[in-house]
Amino acid sequence: MSIKSLIINPGSTSTKIGVFEDETLLFEETLRHSTEEISQYANIVDQKDFRKKIITDLLESRNFDIKSLNVVVGRGGMLKPIPGGTYGVTEALLADLRKGVQGQHASNLGGILAKEIGDAIGVPSYIVDPVVVDELMPIARYSGVPELPRVSIFHALNQKAVAKRYAKEIGKPYESLRLIVVHMGGGVSVGAHENGKVIDVFNALDGDGAFSPERAGGVPNGALIKMCFSGKYSEKEVYGKMVGNGGFNAYLGTNDMREVTKRANEGDAKAAEAKEAFLLQVAKDIGSMACVLNGKIDQIIVTGGIAYGADVVTALKERAEWIAPFTVYPGEDELLALAQGALRVLRGEEEAKIY
């Protein structure tokens, strides 16, 4: 019997939803929210009823019988660090989503909305591989400053999804493979996957690793300290230089890799050099993770929106294909990845984890 799922992926100014029958997308919609609509609410959790109504209104306008659903899945939010997997939405999980234990983000609404809609029609609700997935081996947490441990925040949903996709395609268990997964989008994360866990990864948000279209990645510590105490910038302004206005935004005034490539191809030397620097840094991250896995790597998987660029993949192969063969899954199909997480549980392929 087929399984119908409603997938909810809230963003800061939009709510993406998809309805699947097994792994087949029946329809999807991106519901956009104006600044005026969002600004009415003091905090993210207060937006719950507003977002729930537009989701149910959309389903009604599509003449979709919400009672035909078997499961509702929400994007995981800024919970406490947890192992990867599919989690049933419990009261403890809801409480931490409402609090935002690692920060306030629209994705915190995913599990809350899934639970309310699921409970109303008597079906289970889940979240899958939130960005706070933490499976680091203990020695990967060392930074050199005890008060500043390395933190696991990365594109866990897409990294895990493409790793499991590759494993399925070659007919081997994900848990048996040693993989390096490279996600390149607005942020960049490069992770070492071993025995079904991401044992080391570069913090994609505000930590280390390559710069990206919007983020600074690892920067010289001494210079950053001087910047912080220069009196020129507030804490918020410095953080903005690291996250949001860093990377290509800072160097070239754009966060669109297609624009960077267009400029470079039209003879813009600054764009060409910045792009080459980016690719060098990503390749260095791949090399670092190769050392984490003792040089024994089954495959390097490249994913994310930037992976659509054939020239980007070619450049990374030139620097890193000596480490292991490449497989490329461009884009990030988050709605499908969330649906697949629930399907694995409902089909008995894995057990739901308890938060």
Task: Please name the defining characteristics of this protein.
alpha/beta; single chain; 12 helices; 355 residues; 11 strands; six-stranded mixed beta sheet
Task: Tell me what the structure shows.
With 355 residues, the protein is α/β, with parallel strands linked by helices. It is 38% helix and 19% strand. The strands form 2 sheets. Strands 3-2-1-4-6-5 form a 6-stranded mixed sheet, sandwiched between helices. The protein has a 5-stranded mixed sheet with strand order 9-8-7-10-11, sandwiched between helices. Strand 10, helix 11 and strand 11 form a beta-alpha-beta unit. Helix 10 (269-292) packs across helix 11. The longest helix has 24 residues, at 269-292. The protein is globular, with a radius of gyration of 21 Å.
Q: What is the C-alpha radius of gyration, as a whole number of Å? A: 21 Å
Q: Could you tell me how far the N terminus lies from the C terminus, measured between alpha carbons in angstroms? A: 29 Å
**Main sheet summary:** 6 strands, mixed
| Quantity of strands, as a count | 11
Helical percent range?
Answer: 25-40%
Low-confidence stretches: none
In which order are the strands of the major sheet placed? 3-2-1-4-6-5
Strand content: 15-25%
Kindly state the mean pLDDT as a whole number? Answer: 95
Secondary-structure-based class equals alpha/beta
- Helix segment tally: 12
Q: Label the overall shape.
A: globular
Secondary-structure element string: EEEHHEEHHEHEEEHHHHHEHEH
